[in-house]
Each structure stands twice: as structure tokens, then as C-alpha cells.
Amino acid sequence: MNLESPKVTVAQSAEYLYNALCDVKNYEKLMPENIAKFEVLGDDIFNFGLKGMPEIKLRLKEGVPHSQVNLAAASDKIPFTLTAHLDSVADNATSVHLIFEGEFNPMMAMMIKGPITKFIETLAQNMSKL
């Protein structure tokens, strides 16, 4: 299952956003208002939970400086990745596009498609909070 956020333009440089997204503590600022839990577990891993959803651990994976930041589920139970694509459009403006990719059975995919779509849209909209 592949889901994409709308592209948003943030009034920050690609370098600034890349560095901000490589610091897992900053993801708390991006979370939706209905967040029930957010906990930094290490330099490259955090745990979060939204009301009515199971908790998820995300680990920061390799990235491409100033253009891509990759996160992946820390558990093999629900394998997925979340990639932020950063495209500099000016010195202090960057286009951000989030892509969620996961392998789920059809029943699971049907159940989570709506909440995950809304979640990544919220993350993208909140990029300006960084």
C-alpha cells in the first residue's frame, strides 16, 4: 500500500528541514492534536500513540542530505516506511512530500488506509512548526 501526502511548501531551507527531521525529538511537533503518547527512546527511535490506534515505534533510517529523510517501523509486525522528500524551491522555501509504503493484507489495508492518510496529511501540514 502506497499513500502520499499533498506537497506543502515550508518557509525554511532544505538543509534546515533535513536537520530538523533527523532529530527524532522534533516529530512531537508534527503529531496530530489527538496524540495520546510520544516518547523518545534513543537518538534514532521514538514511540507514539494516537487515540484509538496501537502505539508505533519509528526508527530513523538512512537519508540523503537535504533531500530525503527515511523512517521505518521498528517492529516487523507492521512493516512500513515513511519517507520525507525535500525539494528546495528557493533559499528559504522547501517543498515537502511524504510517502508511506507498507505491506499489509487486504483487510488490514482497508482498515488503516483512512487513518494513515489523515495522519501523513497532518504531518505534512505541521512541517511549518519545525
Automatic annotation (TrEMBL):
<dbReference type="InterPro" id="IPR023393">
    <property type="entry name" value="START-like_dom_sf"/>
</dbReference>
<protein>
    <submittedName>
        <fullName>SRPBCC family protein</fullName>
    </submittedName>
</protein>
